[in-house]
Amino acid sequence: MPKRHFRADDLLPSEITPRHVFEQRRRLLKSAAAGLAFAPGVDALAQAAGAQKLPGRQSGLSTMEKTTPYKDVVSYNNFYEFGTEKDDPARNAHTLKTRPWTVKVEGEVLKPREFDIDELLTLAPLEERIYRLRCVEGWSMVIPWVGVPLSELIRRVEPTGNAKYVEFVTLADRAQMPGLSSPVLSWPYVEGLRIDEANHPLTLLTMGLYGEVLPKQSGAPVRIVVPWKYGFKSGKSIVRIRFVEKQPITSWNRAAPQEYGFYSNVNPDVSHPRWSQATERRIGEDGFLQRKRKTLMFNGYGEQVASLYAGMDLKRFF
Ligand SMILES: Nc1nc2c(c(=O)[nH]1)N[C@H]1C(S)=C(S)[C@@H](COP(=O)(O)O)O[C@H]1N2
Ligand SMILES: [Mo]
């Protein structure tokens, strides 16, 4: 893990929000943290859905890009357990029971244990991190996530020297998840990271977004967000975290190994076999005059994470 501290400015490879716009947004977000309304529409929508507030302190690791409108964040989703169309999760995820909820942590650790969702919420001060999320399909969003560094959980279970990888297993319950009747993926949805990736300060154990508890379609009650990797690495509705010696077999890699490697770092130079990854479409901006954005290496987080892959051929380890 790099020793230096990051500044928000490190995260601005392309577009810099004018200072005054950023300051204004910061003030608005601060008032949100204080429990006041912050963006027209957000609160109304969230309240209608019965959402609970979950503010986090502003993180210096946030990008200053404009956030994707809340309504797009909660209506355009990938969560195959609730269907494969983008609007299926918003329509179907109401059957997900998010409490009580525990996450079992096991494998190569000295202190295996279960964490109740309420313990995860108090592991460390909640932070709001505005991160880009870039899907392998070629679209992206900018979302104010709320969570704690995953490293806060990891240090409490004390991984052994054999813990080289971390496997994330998500809920698979046919009674709650209509999508499981389709064999589109092998269930449960499994993802994995190398231990240094899991411990990286950018990797967020995420319980909320836009100042509220995670909506069900967004992976409630707890998911991972790994901002420099394609979105599918960020597993939703996690029930088990296993520390292992061997690289885990992940659901997408198993389904189509030529298309989805284990690393899946955002990389404009490595095309998906069926399409280029050179550009992306920012959700919420689509319109007639909207130009495509250039995909950034490591989704714009290269300065923070490139050292994790020093000496690796990223075309081979895609
Ligand atoms: N359990 C589970 N997690 C998942 C998925 C899924 O189908 N099931 N889809 C992934 C994909 S492909 C993406 S792009 C992101 C989307 O997250 P969002 O809908 O919150 O934007 O979730 C990821 N996590
Ligand atoms: Mo995705």
Write the layout of secondary structure elements.
Elements: H1 19-33, H2 42-48, E1 57-58, H3 70-73, H4 88-92, E2 102-107, E3 113-116, H5 117-120, E4 127-134, E5 139-149, H6 150-157, E6 165-170, E7 190-194, H7 195-199, E8 204-209, E9 212-213, E10 223-225, E11 238-244, H8 251-255, E12 279-282, E13 293-294, H9 302-305
Parallel strand pairs: 1-4, 2-11, 5-12
Antiparallel strand pairs: 2-3, 4-5, 5-8, 6-7, 6-11, 8-9, 8-10, 12-13
Your description of this structure?
There is one protein chain. This protein is 18% helix and 21% strand. The protein is of the alpha+beta class. The protein has a single domain, classed as Oxidoreductase, molybdopterin-binding domain (Sulfite Oxidase, Chain A, domain 2, Alpha-Beta Complex). A hairpin with a 4-residue loop joins strand 4 and strand 5 (139-149). Mean pLDDT is 89; it is low at 1-24 and 35-40. The structure holds the ligand Nc1nc2c(c(=O)[nH]1)N[C@H]1C(S)=C(S)[C@@H](COP(=O)(O)O)O[C@H]1N2 and molybdenum atom. Molybdenum atom binds at residues 78, 135-137, 231-232.
How many distinct beta strands? 13
Give average pLDDT, whole number: 89
Based on the coordinates given, report the CATH architecture: Alpha-Beta Complex
Hetero groups in this structure are: the ligand Nc1nc2c(c(=O)[nH]1)N[C@H]1C(S)=C(S)[C@@H](COP(=O)(O)O)O[C@H]1N2, molybdenum atom
Unreliable residue runs = 1-24, 35-40
